[in-house]
Amino acid sequence: MSASASAHAQIQAWIREVAQETLQRPTSPKKSTHPMRLRRCTSKSRARQPLQESSGNQRDPRIHLEKEALQSENGVSKRIRRAMDNDKQSPPKKRGRPPKQPTAEASTAFDKPPNLQLRPKSQVTSLNSSPTRSKKGLPNPGYAKPDAALGMNDLRSCQPQVFRMDIARARKSDPIPPAVETLYKKLTGVKHACIPSGLKAIYHTETDTPSKSRDAPADEDFLPHTAKQYPSGRISRIKQSVDQIQHDADWNHGVKAHERNWGKLVSVILFDYEIFQPDILAVNVETCSIAPGIIRLVSSTGEPIATEENSTTVTTEGGKLTPVGRMIDWALALRLNDDESMLVNRAFGTVEYVWRSMNQSLTDFIRECPIFVDLELKKELSLRDPEVQLAVWASAGLLKKRQMQWSTELPMPGIVVDGHMWASYLFFEQNEKLIMLGPISIGNTSTRQGTWQVYYQLMHLVDWGVTVYREWFEREVLGWARTCIEMPTVDVEDRRIAYSPYCQ
């Protein structure tokens, strides 16, 4: 055998011995088996001990065997461990707060109810409104009829019953009280000739201009000298208001403005009369709800009617419904002098708090306001019926008079402003029922003639308030106040309750 062959045989034998010793060597428990740690250790060992090449340009097998031993972990190679890890790989964890899981009660609240029929789009009357659940065609479980769906027919089954009638039907059923007949004839007797005759020359002068945008009123449109005239010295101011109101009303109609834009025009007219007649007060009562609850409207069976309007809403947690407490927008009231205000406040001190008001609300700033004209306004094509809101408020006024044992002989005038159109109603009691007499057209803001008619009709209502209603107020309300003050009082549970039939 040659020398080279024997050297090769010795090398092969030595390799087998080293390999056997390496495989039988126990793994040290202190050595880190983390893949990254193994990688770092391997790289450092390579740096300290560079590869050595044996004779014949063959790689030293010890380095290869040591590398295989370091890459193994409990007898499992890296390739097998990577395959096992891929099988157990989970999706990446999402960042952020995990979503809330709906409860069983919440999930059932959004389930589709059976036999659901949606309203077709062709029945939608306004694009500017925000309909409630009932308008969208969705059922309203647990509620009575929503207030937006209430109509005048629903008020016939309430306490008191409310019936809307024209004058012919009202006269057939029962005799109309004389005070109602008198005011009705005064309102219906107003013709279209409502422009002051003193403005005839001014209107003709305005027409004789290069633009000639508007024609002058006809001679029959001016107020006759024999008719009731406007307040002296106020005609020029009224004319400016009429021109501005007509311009703003046309703009509201063109852009389908919000209800508050129409309310601005109403306030201009009412405040003009507050200036003309210092004995009256124009009050915004859109935040004043009906109180106490005993004078709110209920059904004939004693079950209250549900409503979903602002603070008057009314379902409690137990599902019990409370009565309707509708609110109106504006009111005309008498302005009390200091002596009358002091007398009324002394009378209020002798009764329970729920009766310390001269109208159908306990809101502080109107408790001492004897209201004689109610006004409800709506924008054009509104979903809510303004007549219903006015009727609910008037029914509360009737119940308040009954509770206080005040006379119900006088009518309760009310006005509905529906966009351009103005209409008046007279509420009065007839055989334990509340009759809503009307509508009586009192003008419109779409024309100059119609706007002047609104001013003229309101002048009749203001004159009625400072004369006829004033006499009733002094007799009934101030008479009641004097009676309460003269009667003895007693302290019961820190409340001063008078021995009076008007107190509970």
Tell me what you see in this structure.
The chain is of the alpha+beta class. Helix content is 39%, strand content 12%. The chain contains 13 helices and eleven strands. The strands form three sheets. Strands 2-9-8-7-6-5-3 form a seven-stranded mixed beta sheet, with helices on both faces. The protein has a two-stranded antiparallel sheet with strand order 1-4. A two-stranded antiparallel sheet has the order 10-11. Helix 1 runs parallel beside helix 3 (61-71) and helix 9 (235-255) packs antiparallel against helix 10. The longest helix is centred in the C-terminal third of the chain and has 39 residues, at 448-486. The protein starts with a helix and ends in a 6-residue tail after the last strand. Residues 36-57, 106-145, 306-322 and 489-504 have low confidence and may be disordered.
